[in-house]
């Protein structure tokens, strides 16, 4: 049995997974009693935009280095907190992030 890979190369990890079975590492498994991945509490909304609006949103998000959903979420939070009923500032500002690498 070959040891676990010590790389973050997608190609090398894929090659490793193609040549190894999960049962090769059963002794490394640990049973957990609680969920490992938990969805954040909140509500998802679907917003329909026309092609021109969607393209404009994409251009704004790209200029900020974030996803379109981050821009829309920030805009909604800003407007919510500007309303007289709440009057609190948004929890965090939209900041530029490192561009995500996409596998092609």
Taking the alpha carbons of the first and last residues, their distance comes to 31 Å
Helical fraction? 25-40%
Note the beta-strand portion.
under 5%
User: What is the count of DSSP helices, taking H or I runs of 4+ residues?
Assistant: 3
- Helix-strand makeup class: mainly alpha
Order of helices and strands: HHH
For the report, how would you describe the main beta sheet? none
Counted beta strands = 0
Low-confidence stretches: none
Mean pLDDT: 80
Radius of gyration: 21 Å
Gross geometry: elongated
Structure commentary:
This protein has 104 residues and is mainly α. The protein has a domain at 47-96. 38% of the residues lie in helices and 0% in strands. The protein is built from three helices and no strands. 0% of the residues are buried. The model has no long low-confidence stretch (mean pLDDT 80).
